[in-house]
Structure formats: C-alpha cells, structure tokens
Specification:
The structure is a single chain. With about 220 residues, this protein is α/β, with parallel strands linked by helices. It has helices spanning about 10-20, 40-50, 70-75, 90-100, 145-155, 175-185, and strands spanning about 1-5, 30, 60-65, 65-70, 80-85, 90, 105-110, 115, 135-140, 160-170, 190-195, 205-210, 215-220. Strand 12 (about 205-210) and strand 13 form a beta hairpin. About 30% of the residues are buried.
Length: about 220
C-alpha cells in the first residue's frame, strides 16, 4: 500500500526507476491532490510515466479536495476498485471516462465527491466491464439526469448488483428510478435516502417503490 502526494511523488517515481522490483508489489495506491494545486497537478504530471511500473494496482483511492482528471488515472488498467473520498472531478465527462476506462472494474465508491457539470456527455464506454457489480454515492454532488441517461445509453448498468445513492434530492428520484429499472434482474440490493426540508418533518418510516423492470414492490426505508 503506497500513499502519494505532491511532496513525495517525485521521490517515489525515482524509486521505481532505481528499484523496478518495487512496482509490481504495489496493490493499493492512495493519491492526494490538494486544493492548493492549480492547473496541472502532480498526478497529471507523474502518474502516466509511473503506471507501467505499477501493473498490479487493484485498489485506487483519490482524496485531498483537489481536482482529478481521467487520463492519468486510466493508465492504471489493473484497477478493480475505485474510492473517491472528498475530492473534485473536473467534469461529468471526466467522471464517466473514469467509470468506463477500467476493463477489470468491480466497484466504485464515492463519499463527499463534487463533479462539475458538462453541457453534454460525449464519452463512449470502451472498457465494457462485465464484472462491474457495485456503485455507491454517499453525499456526492453529480447531475443524476445526465449520469443516468449516459449509463443506460452505454449499457454500463447491465451487471450492477448493488446500487446506493444517499442522500438524493427529490428531483433526482425519476432518473435514478429509470436507471434502476434498466439494471433489470441483476440488481439485488439498492439503497436510497431522500433529502428534505426541516419543515417537512423527520423520519418518514417505511415507503414502497414499484420497480418497472420487475413489477415487484420493494420495501425501502427513506429518511428525510
């Protein structure tokens, strides 16, 4: 497990050159980009050259509240799990590129992620990860309509078994419902929590949503 940031990135890059046997031992990579880094970050500058020496990275962690772009991350083709913790993605196009660039991706987990809007999503799904099973959004800010439509169009959702989106504004429920309907019988578990105004009251209790793909009533606990 290796944790890299602006102050030690160059040093680790030199280590990989001097001791190439180190790279294949790295299974988990933690990247930190800070808000103070303007323009091209150290990840943009160093990761593409380091990636060939890191052929076995299975878990990729991104944090630091800085802005991440897809191109340098996509050089780590062995990644199976992506964790985005409290940082920003340059655009929804970049986020969709990240989601569709890893042929072995099994799960994506986000917490307090902020994704800037794009006029439209032009990304094509190139990796076709048939083993993509888990997608979790916790306190994430991303356009649900754009994301849902793109995932359905590119058939990204076909193998998902677990989907969570907590909390979600009421306007985001219809596009997320359409996305879950498109997941079909592969979907085994989903979790949604609505966000509401204080004036609307507290805990709302048990609610039931009908899934248009299976015509089954599924009990869901919704918290306001």
């Amino acid at each position: 497990s290796v944790s890299l940031h602006l102050k030690n990135g160059d040093k680790f890059a030199r280590l990989l050159e001097e001791a190439p046997a180190v790279g294949p031992c790295v299974r988990e990579l933690h990247l930190t980009v800070s808000q103070q880094e303007q323009g091209r970050s150290w990840v943009d500058r160093l990761l593409p050259d380091m990636a060939p020496a890191l052929p076995n990275v299975a878990a990729l962690h991104m944090r630091g509240k800085g802005i991440y772009r897809a191109a340098p991350l996509a050089t780590l083709q062995s990644v199976r799990s992506i964790y985005i913790w409290g940082c920003e993605i340059e655009s929804i196009n970049e986020f969709c590129t990240i989601m569709s660039s890893f042929p072995h991706l099994e799960g994506m987990y986000t917490n307090e992620m902020f994704v800037y809007r794009s006029k439209e999503i032009t990304v094509k799904n190139t990796a076709q990860p048939d083993n993509f099973k888990t997608l979790v959004f916790n306190s994430a800010r991303i356009d649900p309509g754009q994301l849902g439509e793109w995932m359905i169009r590119e058939n990204i959702q076909k193998s998902l078994e677990y989907f969570a989106c907590c909390p979600i504004q009421q306007v985001g429920v219809p596009p997320m419902s359409a996305l879950m309907a498109a997941m079909g019988p592969a979907l085994k578990h989903y979790k949604i929590a609505l966000i509401g105004l204080v004036a609307q009251g507290g805990f709302i209790g048990e609610c039931r949503f009908e899934s248009s793909c299976t015509q089954r009533l599924i009990p869901v606990r919704v918290c306001l």
